[in-house]
Write a structure and sequence with these properties.
63% helix
Length: 151
């Protein structure tokens, strides 16, 4: 049994037995889990893969590609979906708004003009669906092969 620092014991007791975690963990545990899992999968992937699930018999190199898909999906979640079509879209729109003299603080005052900019060149539903499907593919692979993540 590990020895807990007395201050941590006080915090755990004050929180009704719940360990003290950073606020991000309490409000967004999925991003913390995703960070941990992406890092762990990255370490696993760096080593030589001596074994693979039976589904990859005859094409073992695809096992590494499947792990890469898992890592990509968890990285997307951990980093708040940086490659989502709307992320790039909104970043571009913000830059355009600022170039047109609309600061972030003015957006609420000039909402009509900014809303018009948002409607123009909006990402397609197909692009969004493809992105979310790709994220889900990595998560599905992780769930399917969770017990095969050993070497």
């Amino acid at each position: 049994m590990s020895k807990m620092h007395s201050r941590k014991k006080q915090i755990v007791k004050a929180q009704g037995g719940i360990p003290a975690y950073p606020a991000r963990f309490r409000y967004e545990p999925f991003t913390v889990f995703a960070t941990f899992l992406a890092d762990g999968l990255r370490v696993f992937r760096k080593g030589p893969l001596h074994s693979h699930p039976i589904d990859f018999e005859g094409h073992a190199e695809d096992w590494g590609k499947a792990i890469d898909k898992m890592i990509w999906s968890f990285d997307q979640i951990a980093n708040e979906y940086p490659d989502h079509p709307y992320t790039a879209f909104f970043e571009k729109r913000w830059k355009e708004a600022e170039a047109n003299g609309i600061s972030l603080m003015q957006v609420y005052k000039d909402r009509v003009k900014f809303d018009k900019m948002l409607e123009e060149k909006k990402p397609t539903d197909e692009a969004t669906t493809a992105y979310t499907g790709r994220v889900q593919e990595g998560l599905d692979l992780f769930a399917k092969y969770f017990q095969d993540l050993w070497d």
